[in-house]
Design brief:
Helix content: 55-70%
Radius of gyration: 18 Å
Structural class: mainly alpha
Low-confidence stretches: 1-11
Mean pLDDT: 87
Shape: globular
Number of helices: 6
Distance between the termini: 28 Å
Number of domains: 1
CATH architecture: Up-down Bundle
Order of helices and strands: HHHEEHHH
CATH superfamily: dinb family like domain
CATH topology: Four Helix Bundle (Hemerythrin (Met), subunit A)
Number of strands: 2
Strand content: under 5%
Length: 191
């Protein structure tokens, strides 16, 4: 790698630290929005042909985050996993908030490593997968995984006759509002 490429990569890493953490926090706000407006009657129900209940989907998201932290950043305290058959909506919301905070901490440390200071060098998605170097791909993988499952939750709630309100369905696309709800001024790109 040339000195210019190293300089660009270091500058990109420095700029990405706050953005990576903010993006994952916005991602978590979207999960919390769904949980806040989800009809409790559909929490454990399964629509015909579905493999998982909504409860199982949200506990899976939390438990995968725990795995990412355990494998990628073992120096961080891993939140307690959630049981898909016993977890309530309230417990899922609390668990997801804890695992999101830990993932944000992991991302901050990982992106600091791009500058040469952090202890996280590889992202481990799972025990079976080849580890990836720390970088934006790590964040993209994490957010894409959760966006996929948010789509499943919205579809299942709709199929079971309890669609989420339009303001929630559209609200997950209003990043400026989500950004403000997370406590930041402006929006993405306004660092």
């Amino acid at each position: 790698m040339s000195k210019r490429q190293q300089k660009i990569q270091t500058e990109a890493g420095r700029a990405a630290v706050p953005s990576a953490v903010r993006i994952f926090a916005a991602n978590e706000r979207m999960n919390q929005m769904l949980l806040e407006h989800l009809d409790p009657a559909v929490w454990r129900a399964k629509s015909p042909g579905s493999v998982r209940s909504i409860a199982a989907i949200f506990t899976h998201v939390h438990n995968m985050r725990c795995k990412w932290v355990r494998l990628t950043a073992p120096q961080l305290k891993v939140p307690v996993q959630l049981n898909r058959t016993q977890c309530t909506q309230r417990q899922a919301a609390a668990g997801l908030a804890k695992s999101a905070a830990r993932c944000e901490q992991m991302l901050a440390e990982a992106f600091n490593n791009v500058e040469g200071g952090g202890g996280i060098k590889k992202f481990h998605r799972d025990g079976w997968g080849k580890p990836w170097p720390v970088g934006v791909e790590m964040l993209c993988y994490m957010v894409a995984h959760e966006a996929h499952h948010r789509g499943q939750v919205m579809m299942l709630a709709h199929q079971m006759g309890s669609p989420l309100p339009t303001e929630v369905m559209a609200g997950i696309w209003n990043w400026e509002k989500i950004w403000k709800e997370c406590g930041w001024d402006g929006g993405p790109g306004d660092d």
